[in-house]
Amino acid sequence: MVSSMKNPLRKRFLRDLRSDCGKYIAVFLFLVLFIGIVSGFLVTDNSVHASYVESFTKYNVEDGHITFTKHPDDALLRKLEDANDLRFTPLFYKNEQLETEDGTKKTVRIYAPRSTVNTVCLMKGALPAAADEIAVDRLFAETNGIAVGDVLRFSGKAYTVSGFVALPDYSCLYESNSDMMFSAIGFGVGVVTDAGFAALGDAHLSQNYAWKYNTPYTDDAEQDARSQTFMDSLEDILKEEAQDVLQAKVDAVWDEAKTLAATLEPQFRTAAETIERKVTDASAKAVEKAVQSLSEEETFALLLKKSGMDEETFYEKMMDAAGLTAAQKMRLALDARTKGEQELLAEAMEMAGKSEDDLTALALSVAGLTQEEAAEAMLDAVCKKKGTTVEALVAAELGTTEAALKAMQDAFEEAQSLMDDADLAKQEPPKIDLDALENDAETGFDFSFDEIYGLLDKVDATKLYDTSNIRETLAKLRKLTDVRFDDNEIVGVSDYLPRYRNLAITFTGEDMGSDKASITLISYIVIAILAFVFAVTTSNTI
Amino acid sequence: MLTERNEHEVYEMAFVEMRDIHKAFGAGDSRVEVLRGIDLSIEKGQLCVLLGPSGSGKSTLLNILGGIETADTGSVCVDGERIADLREKALTNYRRRHLGYVFQTYNLIPNLTVRENIEVGAYLSDHPLDVDELMDMLGIADQRNKLPSQLSGGQQQRTSIGRAVVKNPDILLCDEPTGALDYNTSKEILKLIENVNQKYGCTVVMVTHNDAIRHMADQVFYLRDGAIRKSYYSEAKVSASELEW
Known about the structure:
The complex is a heterodimer of chains A (about 550) and B (about 240). Chain A is α+β, with helices and mostly antiparallel strands and about 550 residues long.
């Protein structure tokens, strides 16, 4: 190649530029404009993002917030603070409905003044100074056409707008973190004075607390780890607290139940004793009646049979037992030819100087039977004769049926073991363990009310005893043991939101990130289009 | 590189030797055999014409000789060098050193003047001819500063020939150089090519389907269906200016 010669192809470039200068100027201007727009956007985006990040420290933005269902006492808050190395700041709010002319629903979350955490940024006007003044979110005010000096009504109370503010924990107006999109039309935030806050009443009060960690975290991962620990300790501490409250309630119920049980016991005892006495009396009466119903002959025939002797021996023994002399016996032997056994016996008793009662006692001793055995045997004989049973006789005597009496007696036997188990005095109150508790049905009271009422029904059926006083006590006990726990009695959590998951705080930053991504994407697309245009327009010269 | 044996062959070989050249395009059903065993030799300094109808394989043969395409089988030797053995860079050098190419459609660079277009050829050569002298010879000295778009077809083809010849090539390959030109201009161009052949002694291989042109050739090859049907040395060669068609 000839080195002294310059490549003539080089001359094309300048000529190309000159001949197509219009095209190149257009492309150049377009590039300048485009680079200007993109870089301007990126610079703005970066500086806005920087001030957004800076606002976290400037306005001392919360690390998260938690809303309790009930006012937590200081001890509980201190316990949670110590367990997680953080500090709570009350950030109470009330979700109030803004009264609008056309009746559209607009919620304003009204906060008490903030002094330490999530401090207020005043955009226009002034912060509220009087009880009837309010400062509302700037964006909410603008989208709803609210001006400084306007009067807003909540729950019938009028507040004059003193100014527009921005709350650092609501850089995006998300009413709830689960909302798909935020709406500055239907939801806004506002700040009033302490007096103004109190004037709204407590109907819509939320026990909300913001927290800040005592030592700052470095990244989202650490924040997440801390949040997990916090949630765990929250669960533990609240459960412990609830357990104490519930246990106290159970203990109180237990004491009351014990008192009632102590009343119930003698009532049962009286009832049992009364019934037993009635049954015993009735039995005695039944026996007496049975004995009286038998004739003398029948009684003697029965005793003879029970003694197992023949008639002659029995009478002889009777006479021996009566202590007759030989001469008296001879006399009786002579009379025996003309008189019957009974007459002879009566004569013998007369000789021995014994009464008719003595005769019966004598006959019993000769037959070798006790009074009771004899009575029983006589009762049996009567039952057999009449074709009935002892129980039926007793029942008849008591004025009830045999079945009802039998059922009652069986029930009493069963009840004996039941009553032993249910002796509250010997038992400890049940221990509340929320971990083990599957549902609220199980409270530890082991009363078989149905069985007790069954027993009482059986007693009523016999009409032997008036159970109304026992029923009254039982009803009290049953009402007492039907323990119901109300959620209002224990402190719960209705909202828990660490900052990194709070869209109202993070969405702005993320949105800027996505804007940056889209402008970058657009610039890539434009670069590709430009490259294509160049490729097409220069292909004929290459 | 040449071996002992090759050197011996060189001694006997013609300037251009093509042996048993086969070339096919496509694969499977669409495979078309364009060249089916071409054997040809051309002596140095000859003006040689390849004739044949469209699709007979003339242009492909020219492209293989020009190192633009490679043969499937067979060998091509130019001045004793087997161009099938050459690597890409060596092949570029071969084209640059030995070849000048004239196309039917001129292929001039649109934003360079006539002179600059010719200078591009000169720039690529180790031993170029004098550009001004060549332009005088080609009759385009007056147009030296014009752009191709300002020229007629004949002037453009002259410039194209100038760009090919200024390199002082061993072989001038012309692919239908008069295909796009009218009768008179075609004759002028053919005359030029003849002049170049005679004045600079370069071997000319011209592809055409104009049968009349064979009369100006030293050597004529007839191609049909990828094979040489007839070849002969012209006994009574006539000047290009005397051609009629």
